[in-house]
Amino acid sequence: MKKILQSSLFLSAVFLGSAQVLESDNYNSYTLGNVSTSMTTAGQGGMNLYNGAIANYQIVAGDAARVKYLAVTGGSDGTTTSSRYVYKTGLATAWAGRTSGNNIIKGSFEVYTGTSTNKHLSGVSIFGADNGIVGIGYNSQTKTINGRAYLAITADPSQDGYYNITGLTANTYPANTWVTLGFSYNKTTGAITYVVAGNALTLSVNGASTVPGFDPAEFDIHSAPTRTSTTDPANSGPTTFGIDNYVIEASNSAVLGTSDIKKEKTSIIAIGPNPTSEYLNILTELKINKAEIFDMSGKKVNSTLEGNQINVKHLNPGSYIINLETSKGKTVEKFIKK
C-alpha cells in the first residue's frame, strides 16, 4: 500500500461518454457497525483498514438519499498516527483489463464534511505503483475543497512529486454537510480535472505540468489531521467524516467539452513535493508576501524563501506546517520532511 501523504448525483451531467466501472460502492448492502473484525484482513465488501482501531471504521445509517454510508473517525491528536485509510484491492487488475482506449480514470463520490471542532483533511486519492496520481477532499480548517496531484517541476525535475493543491474554488462548505466531488486523470495526456459541486476545473499550475503515463493501482479513502493555524493546538479530540456513492471508471472521453471546462490558474497554489527531503516548492502566479514554517508544537523554524523554493534539508524528519501569505489571503498547509 502506497502512503505518500498522510447530493446523490453521480455527476452524470458532468462525466460524459462511454465508461466502464472499475470500482464502486454505496454501502447499502452492509451490516451496520464495524466495517471489519480485524485491522489485518479485509472486512465487509473487501474493505481493508490502515491505522487506528476497528471501532474507527463504521457503516452507519444515513437518510433517505443515503441509506447507509462509511463513517471514519480520526485520532485525537495532530500526528500521522491519527490518519485513517480504507482501501480495496483489485483496482490495478481492473484497470489492466479495461477496454482498449479507455485511458482516462475518473471518479465521483459524496463526502460528509463531518466534525466542526477538530481539524481534518478527508477525501480520496488514486495511487500508482510508486506515488500518488490525483486526489481531492475536504479541508475542515479552511472549509474548502483541496486537491492532490503528481506534478513535474519545470525548473528542477528532482522536485517532481505529489503536491497539495489549493485555490480550486472560492466556495466554502460548513461542517456536517454533504458535498459532491469528482476527479479525472488522463493517462495519455496527463490532464487532471477536478469537479466540485458540478463545476469542473482543469488543473494548471505555474511552473509545473501534470504527467502522463501513470497506471492507477489503488483507490484510497483517507483522512489526516490538520490545524487551523500555527498557533492552534493539535487536535484534542477525534475527527469524523463520511463517504458514500463512489464510482471509479475507465473512459475514453474527457470531462465535458473544452469550452465547458474552466481553465483558471491564478488562484492555484501547489505546495510540495509531500513528503520532501530537500526542498519545498511553492508554485503559484500569486505574489508571496510571507512564507513561514512551524513545527507541530507551534515553534517557528528557520527558513528562507528563495524564488519559489524553501530549503528544508536542515529540518529533522517529521511533520511541519507552512504558513503562506499571498495577495489572495493566507494558506496553511501541512507537509512531511523525510
TrEMBL record:
<keyword id="KW-0732">Signal</keyword>
<dbReference type="Pfam" id="PF18962">
    <property type="entry name" value="Por_Secre_tail"/>
</dbReference>
<dbReference type="InterPro" id="IPR026444">
    <property type="entry name" value="Secre_tail"/>
</dbReference>
<feature type="signal peptide">
    <location>
        <begin position="1"/>
        <end position="23"/>
    </location>
</feature>
<protein>
    <submittedName>
        <fullName>Por secretion system C-terminal sorting domain-containing protein</fullName>
    </submittedName>
</protein>
<feature type="domain" description="Secretion system C-terminal sorting">
    <location>
        <begin position="273"/>
        <end position="336"/>
    </location>
</feature>
